[in-house]
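Hi Y.,

Following your request, here is the sequence exactly as I used it, all 134 residues.
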Amino acid sequence: MKISILTISMVTAAALAAFGQEGAVEDVKHEAKKAGQTVKDGVEAAGKKTKEVAQTVGQKTKETAETVGHKTREAAQTVGRKTKETAETVSEKTKESAKTVHRKSKQALNKTKAETSGQQSTNQAPNTPSSSDR
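Below is the corresponding structure, written out as tokens. Let me know if you'd prefer a different format.
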């Protein structure tokens, strides 16, 4: 009987040691699962934050593009208006210059005609027949 009690004690001690190790293994498994879940949660949170940031960046980029487009359109309109004003001013100045040149040319022509007429009238012989013509 002593041997049976000794054997039972040994088997019981071995079983308790095995159960103790099994408990430690279960603890390690449980902690590993917790760590894995924590990592998974962290990755999901980072993914959500990245998505939010990407959406914000996309929205800001869209707003910036719209603003740039609006400013570009305004600048083009301003350049167009200024170019038109400049063209109109140049056109008016050209017309004024042409009128002035025309007026001065006409005055010079009239003056030349008057001078020529004056010279012709002083150089003309009277219409009376000369004594030699008779």
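The chain has a mean pLDDT of 81.

Thanks again,
Q.
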